[in-house]
Amino acid sequence: MQETPKANRPHIGIFGRRNAGKSSLINALTNQELALVSDVAGTTTDPVYKAMELLPLGPVVMIDTAGIDDRGTLGELRVKKTMEVICKTDLAILVIDPATGVGDFERGLFNRLREKNIAIVVTINKVDLYKNKLAELRKKIEREFGIEPVPVSALNNEGIEELRDTIVRKAPLDYEEPYIIGDLIKPGDTVVLVTPIDLAAPKGRLILPQVQTIRDVLDHDGIAIVTKERELKMTLRNLKEKPRIVVTDSQAFMKVDADVPDDILLTSFSILFARYKGDLGIFLEGAKKLEELKPGDRVLIAEACTHRRQADDIGTVKIPRWLRLKVGNELQFEHVSGLEYPENLGDYDLILHCGGCMLNRREVISRLEKARRAGIPVINYGMAIAQLHGILDRALKPFPEIHALWLGERDLLEKAW
After folding, report:
1. Domain count, the chain
2. At what angle do helices 160-170 and 22-30 cross, to 10 degrees?
3. Dist CA 379 CA 352 (whole Å)
4. How many Å separate Cα 84 from the centre of its chain?
5. Statement to judge: residues 61 and 136 lie in one domain
6. N or C terminus of the chain: which is more exposed, having fewer CB within 10 Å?
7. What's the CATH code of the domain at 58?
8. Quick one: 197 and 337 in the same domain?
9. Do 37 and 157 have their domain in common?
10. What is the CATH number of the domain that holds 383?
């Protein structure tokens, strides 16, 4: 359970008014004192993420949020943070307090969750204190929301097992794409993974996308061979049969492209994760925009993690340098990292996003959707690097439908579909 990356766990958000018992509910569901509980309204101020095991569902991330009815200047900021959690929520638990019942706060949140196609579980907490209100409140929830609520008492553990069963039953199974690379290979195929070891490589281990790709190869009965870019030629020579595909770190794209024969498929970890976490078709629009950038354009570079930046960092140094060489020195760059993602996306001409390995798929898709609504194209690091070095066409060949779109063969693709 501890080894499952947070980005690969279903994210379960707990929403409701202040003092509805959201934190107590998390503690009851997990049989642990994970969340701070107090009778004082507004104890939970910022979203709190807890990686845990929720049997029989398995590893999940529970998100405790501030009350949707918080007030004042700080309260409004807390509510804003709570609403941002929706973008990464795979299943939402709406906690109703019988003392306040169903009002505009609950209706507004419910409608927002429905608009995002998020699975919803409604629970009535504190039933030990308000048994006389339960029947009427249940009917109102069923009438307004079309969902049968689960009555519980987080204090007495009443109804908690039924709530767990409802969560498991309603939890979406598509919170991530099923494959990183598994659908591109057959059992027995060899996959060569090129993993440079440089200053940015974590000491004593591989980065998360590399580890997850290796595991996906093994899960699909493939053979994973890991090498550095300097040993790639030797590795290929030593193989009795050519590999099915070579996957490289994007920063080594140029050397690997030169060393891998044209009859062997080639792509990058970043492009695999662009598909796994997001939508390659949307990123293609960003690749086209990359060719249209002109001096003075504004480019937002967004990274999901907050790693320590090296002297030749890919996002803050290398990609901006390559873009300036292509367009000229007058491009304007802005950088955001971690959970930060600006609301004013319409102020930019292009968004360059990292591979998103630290985000769950719903949040990546949410970010892409925000950009689409703002009319701003998005491209991820790997596709941008391939495009800037003239090898995106080759890097997309492992994905025939996307490659057809890249070539403009939309009519042929629609017939094939």
Report:
1. 3
2. 90
3. 5
4. 13
5. yes
6. C
7. 3.40.50.300
8. no
9. yes
10. 3.40.50.11410
Q: What is the DSSP letter of 99?
A: T
Q: How many residues does the chain have?
A: 417
Asked if residue 141 belongs to a domain, the reply is yes
* pTM confidence score: 0.73
pLDDT tens by residue, the chain, 417 residues: 445 666 678 899 999 999 999 989 988 988 766 544 445 455 555 788 888 887 777 788 899 999 999 888 888 888 988 998 998 899 999 999 999 999 999 999 999 999 988 999 999 999 999 989 899 999 999 999 999 999 999 989 999 999 999 998 898 766 556 789 999 999 999 999 999 886 556 666 788 889 999 999 999 999 999 999 999 999 999 999 999 999 999 889 999 999 999 999 999 999 999 899 888 989 998 998 998 999 999 999 998 876 555 656 888 888 999 999 888 778 999 998 877 788 899 999 999 998 887 788 888 888 898 899 899 999 999 899 999 999 999 999 999 989 988 888 544 444 443
Q: Which long-range contacts (CB under 8 A, 24 or more apart) does 183-187 make?
A: 184/244, 184/245, 184/265, 184/398, 185/217, 185/220, 185/222, 185/244, 185/245, 186/222, 186/244, 187/220, 187/221, 187/222
Q: In this structure, are 13 and 148 located in the same domain?
A: yes
Q: Is 338 left (phi over 0), alpha (psi -120 to 50) or beta?
A: left
Q: Do 152 and 291 have their domain in common? A: no
Residues 303 and 345 in one domain: yes
Domain contains 41: yes
The range of the structural domain enclosing residue 263 comes to 182-272
- Tokens 């042929």 identify what position? 412
What are the strands of the beta sheet with 150-151, ordered from one edge?
48-54, 58-64, 11-16, 91-96, 119-124, 150-151
Assigned domain for 19 exists: yes
Query: Any residues with CB less than 8 A from the CB of 261 and at least 6 apart, and which?
Result: 236, 242
Pair of tokens at residue 251? 């920063």
Pairing of β 58-64 and β 48-54: antiparallel
Answer yes or no: is 27 within a domain. Answer: yes
